[in-house]
Amino acid sequence: MRIQQLLNAHTTILDRMKNIILFILWALIAVALSSCQSRKDNYIIKSVSFKQVSISDSLNNNHNKNLYILKFDVEFCNRTYTWGGSSVSPGLKGMLCPVDSIRVYDTYNRDITDKISGYGFDFGQYFTINGKKEFVYSPLSLDKMAKEINNKELSTLGLKITDGRLFELDTVVVPQYIQVYYSDSVLSSKIELINY
Predict the structure, then answer these.
(1) Beta strands 175-181 and 186-190, pairing class
(2) What is the DSSP-derived secondary structure letter of residue 181?
(3) What angle do CA 107, 111, 115 make, to 5 degrees?
(4) Which pLDDT score, from 0 to 100, does residue 158 have?
(5) Distance between CA 47 and CA 50 in Å, rounded?
(6) Which ranges constitute the DSSP H helices of the chain?
(7) Which residues of the chain have pLDDT under 70?
């Protein structure tokens, strides 16, 4: 009887130790899984918009009718997983496929891209655009914008690619549509104008 009691006590201690070890293993697995971070390294431009805007605190109030905001709608892609660390903004490795060029055409299908210029501030500024405060960048030209995307410059990485780009049209010709050219495809969008 005494031996049976000792064996039962020993089995109870082993069961408790096994439960404690299983609990510790599950806790370690939970900690490891919770420190796994998922992020999407690249982006693809899904659509483009080029809208005429009115800026109340404009850099150049006398040309306010010829200001346009270029915006990209993007989809983040190429999911990767890392261990530890904090969450990271998506798209930090830039555009997945290079942009050949960005072109604007008038109602007669003439390329008027050379008539469009920016103010050259790459760090971004806040402006009141159509009555709403927005953060925008302003590259020197649409060609420079394409190069910035391809060179993965800071203003085109992560969520910054979705911020607007401010441009001025230096002609009385009315722009009709904008196109983003890739090596194998073209993304096109009609330009939105303001009725003054």
Answers:
(1) antiparallel
(2) E
(3) 100
(4) 84
(5) 10
(6) 2-34, 142-150
(7) 1-11, 33, 57-65, 84-87, 122, 195-196
pLDDT value for 36: 74
Return phi, psi of residue 91, to 5°: 80, 20
What's the token pair of residue 21? 């070890």
Using CA of residue 98, residue 101, residue 106, residue 109, what is the dihedral sign? negative
Q: Which amino acid is at 162?
A: T
CB 117: neighbour CB atoms within 10 A?
17
CB 159 within 8 A of CB 72: no
Give the pLDDT of residue 128.
83
Residue 60 phi, psi dihedral angles, 5° rounding: -145, 80
pLDDT of residue 7: 56
Give the total residue count for the chain: 196
pLDDT value of residue 19 = 83
pTM of the model as a whole: 0.75
- Could you tell me the CA-to-CA distances from 22 to 8, 12, 36, 72 in Å, in that order? 21, 15, 21, 51
How many other CB atoms sit within 10 Å of the CB of residue 112? 18
Three-class SS state of 65: helix
Residue 114 to residue 26: CA distance in whole angstroms: 63
